[in-house]
Write a structure and sequence with these properties.
The radius of gyration is 23 Å and the shape is flat. With 174 residues, the protein is of the alpha+beta class. The longest helix is centred in the middle third of the chain and has 19 residues.
Length: 174
């Protein structure tokens, strides 16, 4: 599949971009191996802040993460199996193999970490969070903890600070 950037002019100086080189990426997806042929453009204006920086096809990001070898479709399923169905890494690995994905078990762990990073980025989107909270009108924060092991109890002997935040403000208790 050939991917070409939609932008033909530099975002900084508005001069026409030039084809700098072609690149290839091979990704493992649920459709099988997909070869992406990328046209990479650069600004040739030496006075431009973005001189010689590559412009890659916007669509490339819909296929995979930078430098990734597995498609976002696989990363999404790994996260859904782990957090939606509470499957273990070996179980997720087995499910992927059953669906025709050639993958090592250790790679499943790596993909799960990429999934967690994507979720964290989504949750950290301040504008999205503000819009959601404005719509809800309040926030309820709940923290759940476990009793420490006997050997770790000493670390919790020091005073602790508990914080409860809500629409009415922040409340502190000792």
């Amino acid at each position: 599949m050939r991917l070409v950037p939609k932008r033909i002019h530099c975002v900084s100086c508005e001069q026409r971009l030039w084809v700098a080189y072609h690149a290839q990426r091979t990704l493992m997806t649920f459709r099988g191996l997909v070869r992406l042929r990328l046209v990479v453009w650069r600004c040739r204006n030496q006075g431009c802040d973005l001189y010689h920086l590559p412009y890659r096809a916007e669509e490339e990001g819909a296929w995979a993460l930078p430098h990734g070898e597995f498609g976002l479709d696989i990363i999404t399923v790994v996260g859904q199996l782990r957090y939606g169905e509470h499957r273990s890494i070996p179980e997720i690995h087995q499910r992927l193999v059953e669906r025709g994905v050639s993958i090592a078990e250790r790679t499943v762990t790596d993909l799960l970490e990429r999934y967690e990073e994507l979720v964290a980025l989504h949750l950290a989107d301040e504008e999205r969070v503000k819009a959601r909270l404005k719509q809800q009108g309040q926030v309820l924060l709940a923290i759940d903890g476990m009793q420490p092991d006997v050997g770790h109890a000493r670390a919790l002997d020091s005073p602790r600070l508990f914080v409860r935040r809500g629409a009415a403000g922040t409340h502190f208790a000792q």
